[in-house]
Specification:
Blueprint lengths: L1 E2 L2 E2 L6 E2 L2 E2 H5 L24 E4 L2 E4 L16 H18 L3 H13 L5 E2 L3 E3 L2 E7 L7 E6 L13 E5 H5 L6 E7 L5 E7 L6 E7 L10 E10 L5 E7 L5 E8 L7 E5 L6 E6 L5 E7 L4 E7 L8 E4 L7 E6 L2 E6 L7 E5 L10 E4 L5 E3 L3 E2 L4 E7 L2 E7 L5 E3 L8 E4 L9 E7 L6 E6 L4 E7 L11 E9 L5 E9 L10 E4 L17 H4 L4 E5 L9 H5 L7 H16 L8 E6 L1 H12 L4 E7 L5 H5 L7 H8 L6 H10 L13 E6 L8 H13 L6 E6 L12 H17 L1
Parallel strand pairs: 38-39, 38-40, 40-41, 41-42, 42-43
Antiparallel strand pairs: 1-2, 3-4, 5-6, 7-9, 8-9, 9-10, 10-11, 12-13, 13-14, 14-15, 15-16, 16-17, 17-18, 19-20, 20-21, 21-22, 23-24, 24-25, 25-26, 27-29, 28-29, 29-30, 30-31, 32-33, 33-34, 34-35, 36-37, 37-39
């Protein structure tokens, strides 16, 4: 079968007693032969170059950046993006039956009606629900006296209906939802275009009427003062950087009061309310350095108290614990320690050890109850939670499987008798567990319901270790249908990210079942750049060590081939954002290994982005990637791997690339420029598609079912390459 110049190998693989091609076109869907297409859009090449450190670099597609961004009105730019979208639709049209079939499968695994496990806070139970047909959540609350009491159905009242707010918009995202301490007011924020500039609204819950004018250009959760007559909010500037925190008084017509501002363009402001609800912590941080202050929640007029001035490379965060501070810091060890400290300014000299991390114990955070401290940590790549009680006795929460994904759930009450957890594995659906602190037992409160059915015994998961070219041992998690042959004939979907110290957990996905049931093995490469094995794993994949990330992914691919899980040319790969950069780098390095690539909102124009300090994230990103403006070494390092700069005259696998016109994180022109250059340079006739969401941002479509259509398109693109 030949598709737009791609030679696709038709391999018969027995899965559940059926051949792979039969499974790829399940009953009700028909795979059709790809017709010949006309020429794809080709962007004009215009002379443009820049010179840094004596090096001249050409950038013939620089014109795709609209000079008025974030407003995009340039006709030539919009025409090109629309032409690419039309070409995408044309090329995917023959696979609409498969897309529709996949979409139905994906949707049928989602409960039309769904609800969260209620939580109790400040006299009310809270819960979100999806009613049948809902694209977005409805939020409810009901009065109560205790967190474990049952709530009668007629006690629940609608707090906010996202579906109503989203009615007139192609895109909708709720950013914040915060009830005042007196339970009379609601602050919520919304984004209607994917730009992540949220408008904060404050209403009276008894009437639904606004009690102050909306606040534009905000980000994150607002924080109420204890008297409920004012709140703190974060403002984002023209470069989408949260650089100011204001206090709005609801009882005064005076201008909002500035609480703090960050003048360093590389630092972002954030804030959180302590678990005790007595302190507000104000954070200023980049990717490697942080500075924290606090102020009392009952008086926002007081000057914030600085815990410790910023020192390059020192990261710390704080909580309120028994009239002192409990601070997580990497000042001694890269895997962090916990310290107690007095509630005084510049207290670093008075910090006292509470719990030490080490080379094998990576402290990820800490949650403080009145009598207990919970410390999520990663030990040899596996997430665990340590419980420390008021007598300093310690124990780990025991969990039912050897490998899993574990995280803290919603735990708003410092006096709670249980700890709520989120749990899953590659074969176990997402579950909500409550850990009884006294009895040390787990109670299952909810297990993800899959309406179309799911039998965990049909699937197998494994944990492998690949040896990278420099000798490092890189973990791989994988899952497959029990009937899938492991003789090298099966296609395999390998996913990776590898940046910002973000680990990819081996978590359950109902979407992946559509691949597993068609004989595709799914794998996650836990490559350097994430912190899967500790903070050093992150450090070994950034700055001058960045290429370790790409090499790890390629070496994991080769390991899976050598071990007979798949074969060269049968590997499907995907990643988004920094994971999209990963996709671009590995296909520059070893394109022959891969059958198809999906790169979502890929960060591929690394050099040009890091050379532009006016872009939203650039100054903050320099500690992650390097500063090519100031450093010739950083310039050379980035240019040597930047996917856009390293596109060359060679064959590339079939590719699907996505972008968001309003994306403030990876600007739309990065994937657009990359695709344009690939079209010009590559020597094959393999399909190359660019789809730009013209009404969305970094996360793609916003509705829960609308978003599944894009997953179906991705899977159809993959599957049509390996039948």
């Amino acid at each position: 079968m030949v598709v737009a110049g791609d030679l696709l190998i038709r391999v018969q693989v027995a899965v559940q007693g059926t051949t792979l091609p039969a499974l790829l076109s399940k009953p009700g869907s028909t795979m059709t032969t790809q017709p010949a297409f006309g020429e794809p859009p080709k962007a004009a090449r215009r002379h443009h170059e820049h010179t840094h450190h004596g090096i001249v670099t050409a950038d013939p597609y620089a014109w795709l950046q609209d000079p008025n961004y974030p407003t995009v009105t340039d006709t030539a730019v919009l025409d090109y993006l629309q032409a690419e979208n039309a070409y995408f639709e044309q090329c995917m049209a023959p696979h609409q039956d498969l897309i529709n079939s996949l979409f139905d499968e994906l949707k049928n695994r989602k409960s039309e009606s769904d609800a969260s496990v209620p939580y109790f806070h400040n006299g009310f139970h809270y819960q979100w629900r999806f009613n049948e047909g809902d694209q977005y959540r409805r939020w409810y609350r009901a009065p109560g006296n205790h967190e474990l009491e049952q709530v009668a159905p007629d006690q629940w009242q609608v707090l906010l209906d996202e579906n109503q707010l989203a009615q007139e918009h192609d895109y909708f995202r709720l950013g914040a939802l915060s009830v005042s301490p007196n339970n009379k007011y609601l602050a919520y924020s919304i984004d209607n275009d994917g730009s992540e500039r949220f408008t904060l609204n404050i209403i009276a819950l008894d009437s639904g009427n606004a009690i102050t004018t909306p606040i534009a250009d905000t980000m994150g959760e607002p924080i109420w003062n204890q008297s409920s007559d004012g709140l703190l909010y974060r403002n984002v500037n023209a470069q989408w950087r949260p650089d100011k925190i204001y206090w709005r008084s609801l009882n005064s017509a005076q201008a909002d009061q500035l609480i703090c501002a960050e003048d360093d363009g590389g630092f972002f402001l954030s804030m959180h309310l302590s678990q005790s609800e007595q302190l507000v912590f104000l954070h200023s941080a980049d990717h490697v350095t942080s500075e924290v202050s606090f102020l009392p929640a009952d008086d926002f007029s007081q000057a914030p108290v600085l815990i410790s001035p910023r020192q390059t490379g020192h990261e710390y965060d704080a909580e309120h614990y028994q009239n002192q501070l409990l601070i997580r810091s990497n000042k001694r060890h890269a895997n962090f320690d916990l310290y107690t400290a007095p509630m005084t300014p510049h207290s670093l000299a008075e910090w006292r050890p509470f719990l030490e991390g080490d080379d094998g114990h990576y402290l990820l955070g800490h949650l403080v109850f009145k009598e207990q401290v919970f410390v999520p940590q990663r030990i040899d790549g596996l997430d665990q939670i340590l419980v420390i009680d008021g007598n300093s006795d310690q124990h780990f929460i025991q969990l039912p499987e050897a490998t899993y994904s574990l995280d803290l759930g919603n735990n708003p009450n410092a006096q709670s008798s249980f700890l709520r957890l989120q749990y899953s594995s590659l074969t176990t659906p997402h579950s909500v567990l409550d850990y009884d602190i006294t009895s040390r037992t787990l109670q299952t409160r909810k297990v993800q319901h899959i309406p179309s059915g799911y039998d965990a015994s049909q699937y197998r998961s494994e944990r492998l270790t690949a040896t990278a070219r420099d000798g490092q041992r890189v973990p791989i998690s994988l899952v497959y249908h029990r009937d899938t042959s492991r003789d090298g004939s099966a296609p395999l979907h390998l996913y990776g990210y590898g940046a910002y110290g973000h680990a990819i957990p081996p978590a359950f996905s109902t979407n992946t079942l559509s691949l597993l049931d068609r004989g595709v093995i799914f794998a996650i490469a836990h490559i350097r750049g994430g912190d899967d094995l500790g903070y050093h794993w992150y450090q070994d994949g950034k700055l001058q060590q960045r290429e370790n990330t790409f090499n790890d992914f390629v070496d994991c691919t080769r390991h899976l081939i050598d071990e007979g899980y798949t074969a060269a040319g049968r590997v499907l790969i995907s990643g988004g954002s920094a994971g999209g950069e990963l996709m671009g780098a590995v296909i520059n390095q070893a394109p022959e290994l891969y059958a198809a690539v999906v790169a979502h909102v890929p960060f591929v124009d690394v050099l040009n982005t890091m050379l532009n300090p006016d872009l939203p994230l650039t100054p903050m990103e320099w500690p992650e990637w390097g500063n090519p403006i100031e450093s010739a070494e950083d310039y050379a390092t980035i240019k040597a791997y930047s996917p856009y700069d390293q596109v060359s005259a060679q064959d590339y696998p079939p590719m699907l690339v996505t972008a968001g016109l309003n994306d403030p994180r990876v600007t739309y022109w990065e994937p657009a420029k990359w695709v344009a250059k690939l079209r010009h340079e590559k020597t094959d006739n393999n399909m190359l598609l660019l789809k730009t969401n013209m009404e969305a941002g970094h996360g793609g479509q916003s509705g829960r079912f609308t978003a599944l259509r894009e997953v179906a398109e991705e899977y159809a693109f993959f599957l049509s390459r390996v039948i």
